[in-house]
């Protein structure tokens, strides 16, 4: 029977304890939440359902969704339900929560007479109140183990090396060219020095010979 009317007195009916669900579920806006309800062997073949409680003096069901056969998942708007008779449990999933979804709901098993039901409260928190996601511990350890200055140098070293490579090559070529020029200058200087020394030796040898010749001829010095 469709649960058009849910009487609070049904909580006291025999067999109610066979159906058990979480008393409260919660989530933030945009989240997806699920709850799992269990039941007894006598409810295995009954259709399970999920609905929102409305009404002030008389409680009624709204937006009811029933389970399918053979474990088939049934989806209606942003709600889905799947019954697993082998596990004696069924699961309800609510997606993309909104603040308007908050309220009281019922999990139930449809049967002749009074249905077996269980009240569930859904709390939806504003998305703005969601706490920041914690930093992954492994990432934090890796980051803390390496000094920030070292990491910055590592990022800079590769492009700087590429930029400075041509400069190093140019400086090396200039250094080699300077060494070659300096070597050539040293060689020329040594040759010139040797030539000067040889000239001086020849003059020293020539001068004594000339003076000796003039003395032997008794020629006066000019």
TrEMBL record:
Residues 1-18 form the signal peptide. InterPro entries: CD300_family_receptors, Ig-like_dom, Ig-like_dom_sf, Ig-like_fold, Ig_sub, Ig_V-set. It is a single-pass type I membrane protein. SMART domains: IG. GO terms for cellular component: plasma membrane. It comes from the Eukaryota. The chain crosses the membrane at residues 163-187. GO terms for biological process: immune system process. It is found in: Cell membrane. Pfam families: V-set (PF07686). PANTHER family: CMRF35-LIKE MOLECULE 9, POLYMERIC-IMMUNOGLOBULIN RECEPTOR. This is CD300 molecule like family member g.
């Amino acid at each position: 029977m469709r649960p058009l009317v849910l009487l609070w007195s049904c909580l006291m009916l025999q067999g109610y304890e066979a159906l058990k669900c979480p008393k409260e579920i919660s989530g933030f806006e945009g989240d997806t939440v699920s709850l799992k309800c269990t039941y007894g062997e006598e409810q295995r073949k009954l259709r399970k359902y999920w609905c929102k409680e409305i009404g002030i003096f008389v409680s009624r069901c709204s937006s009811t969704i029933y389970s399918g056969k053979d474990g088939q998942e049934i989806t209606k708007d942003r709600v889905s339900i799947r019954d697993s008779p082998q596990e004696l449990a069924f699961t309800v999933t609510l997606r993309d929560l909104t603040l308007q979804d908050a309220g009281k709901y019922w999990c139930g098993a449809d049967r002749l007479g009074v249905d077996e039901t269980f009240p569930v409260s859904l709390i939806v928190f504003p998305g703005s109140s969601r706490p920041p996601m914690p930093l992954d511990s492994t990432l934090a350890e890796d980051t803390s183990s390496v000094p920030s200055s070292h990491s910055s140098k590592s990022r800079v070293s590769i492009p700087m090396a590429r930029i400075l490579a041509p400069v190093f090559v140019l400086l090396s070529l200039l250094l080699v060219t300077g060494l070659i020029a300096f070597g050539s200058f040293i060689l020329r200087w040594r040759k010139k020095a040797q030539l000067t020394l040889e000239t001086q030796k020849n003059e020293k040898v020539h001068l004594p010979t000339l003076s000796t010749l003039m003395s032997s001829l008794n020629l006066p010095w000019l």
